[in-house]
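Hallway conversation turned thread

IA: we were arguing at lunch whether anyone had actually written out RND family efflux transporter, MFP subunit end to end. Turns out nobody had. So, for the record, here is the sequence (403 residues) and right after it the structure tokens. Reply here if something looks off.
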Amino acid sequence: MNYERKVDSMDSLAGSTQSFYEEADNRRKRTILIVALVLTAIVLAVAWFAFGSGKAGDDAAAGGAAGAAAGASTPTVTVMIPGRQSVQAVIAANGTIAARREMPVGVAGEGGQVVSVLVEPGQWVGAGQTLAVIDRSVQAQQAASLSASIRVAKADADLAQSELDRAEALVGRGFISKADLDRKRATRDSANARVRVAEAQYKEAVARNGRLNIVAPAAGLVLTRQVEPGQVVGAGSGVLFRMAKAGEMEMLAQLAEGDLQRVRTGTRATVTPVGTNLQIAGQVWQVSPVVNPDTRQGTVRIAVPYSDALRPGGFADARLVSGSAEAPLLPESAVQSGPEGNYVLIVGKGDKIERRPVKVGTVTDGGVSIASGLTGNEKVVVLAGAFLNVGDKVKPTIQKSSQ
């Protein structure tokens, strides 16, 4: 009986122990389940938060990109309202330098062999100054002979006069007839005439000898020399020297037919010889009355004072001031050119680009004047015009016009 109680007690103890372990196992499973559920909830919360934040960031980025794209599609351009300014009407031209009054000098007398040349190109000479000496040994002897013949003729004339005087004293006494007196008077007159002939021949010889040497017809600058000592020159020798009278120079400027109408005698000009920075003030003194039918150009002669930089035959540029006018003035970057001619871009209605054909006037250091096509109140694109198209929408930034 005690044994049965003991067995029952042990079974009861074993059952309670088993129940304890089962209950502990259940608690552990519940704990694991709860932890798993909490972790799952945390993971879901983190995933939801991350997903929601990423979407918001994407939306913000998309909005920013759209805004940037909208900003980039409307470029900012610099424009100016030029107004109208007083602009000098300047005509650009080019041409050659020449002596205003060129004097070709050759042989004026009978010529002969050149003994010496006394000047070189570039020298200044006076009126009548000897340029080259011609041999005159033969001509000198001829002049001496004529001088002697004058003395002979004068001696004959003196003798004839003496005989006439004696005859006049005797005719009153009846020793000489009036016929003889008339003959002696005629002899005296013939002798005097021969004296005058001899003197004229001598003066002619002296004048010819004086023309043997080559002399300057007027004061000026020697430009060229085409004669050397020992050379035999004569009437057919051509031009031996070229001179610029008083050293005066001019520029022969070639102008288009339209520009020729705007130039008058007295128009101021500035001449710049090629290869120099000199600006020599001049004045138009003659405008060509004809136009070359082939080139459609005419010649304007600009008088300029002497300068070492001015060499006849050289090339030069000229700027002629033909007046002043009111016109819009733009920087060169604003004016563009195409197959149809010059044009500018303006910002029109709705801040959209428009193309405006223009006619360019005078180009100065301050910019380009517009002869026609603009009133001066337009918003003209100053920069980046080559990157814009007609109809593009822009954001204009106004730049003040330079005065």
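OS: looked through it. The first strand starts at residue 76 and ends at 80.
IA: good, adding that to the notes. Helices lie at 2-72, 137-171, 178-210, 257-260.
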